[in-house]
Amino acid sequence: MMLAAHDVSFDAHDRRIMCFAHIINLCSGQVIDAASGVAGDKNTNSLSGDDTIPSSPIPQAQAAVRAIRGSGERRHAFNRNLQNGNQEGWFTDQLSKIVKVQPLQLLQDVCTRWDSVYHMLT
Description:
Blueprint: H1 2-5, H2 20-36, H3 57-69, H4 72-88, H5 116-121
């Protein structure tokens, strides 16, 4: 109404502003899917013995996080492996220097959060 009073034409449907965060989410999802070779719904919450192991790194990480987070026993075993690896010096950086890995909870990616794959992998 105020624009029309100043003789400015404005079509709300034609001039709508899309949510930038939603656009980033859609674009990054397409890039991740293309890089992963993933088709369809990638966020299944089960990992049965019949599931095949994906060949790309992102789906492999997603499957590993799902499997570890899917059971309290597997979470404890994972943390025990981290503790043993820290004690035995299994973990090294790029310069072959022994580092300690903090036993943090693994984060699972969420299809509605564009940066969740990054946080899952780091």
